[in-house]
Amino acid sequence: PVRLSQLINRLLDWARMESGKRSYLLEPVAVADVLDDALAALEPLLLQAPAQVSCKVTPGLPRVRADRAALADALTNLLHNAHKYTGPEKRIAVTAGQEAGAVEIRVADNGPGIAAPDQKRIFEKFYRAKDPLDRTIEGSGLGLAIVNHIAEAHGGRVSVASTPGQGAVFTISLPPAEGAP
User: Distance between CA 109 and CA 83 in Å, rounded?
Assistant: First the structure.
């Protein structure tokens, strides 16, 4: 029942996004606060299956104009995926910094990586890079599409870099908030 409820909520959330009825309250927020929220949401999963999780935020990082809860949801999704797709020796590294004027939040894992053809499609709704007949890893195929939608709604983008056998790094790039240190 819990999994079905989560799936229904995810489908309803996606329907609101696709219809343009999902609204975001954008205000200057500190990336460190958003990361704290996302990491706190990961805690129950870590109690079930421990992982080595590190987080490093560049000092003096500018704020971003964001809906704190929505951005935390997007990062929580990336953290859950990093946890879900790694083996028993789970290592997840979260970093936030600034590159080429954008604020970049990265979630890296030590999982099996993602093949190049799949990297082009993983942000499409209902697409799953793993064998769809493999039921050992649960998922709706909506998570990364939702992350993509949230990033774009914040004037940013999400991308992936991965080499099969060497993990994956998902990056959410956002513009800094105007005049926010």
Answer: 8
Identify residue 127 by its one-letter amino acid code.
Answer: Y
- How far is 108 from 34, CA to CA, in rounded Å? 17
Taking only the tens place, the pLDDT of each residue in 46-90 is: 998 999 999 999 999 999 999 998 999 999 999 999 999 888 899
Q: Is the pTM of this model over 0.85?
A: no
How many angstroms separate the CA atoms of 135 and 60, rounded?
Answer: 44
- Which residues are CB-neighbours of 77 under 8 A, at least 6 positions away? 143, 144, 146, 147
Q: Of the candidates 141, 126, 149, 125, which has an alpha carbon nearest to the alpha carbon of residue 23? A: 149
State the residue for tokens 């819990």.
2
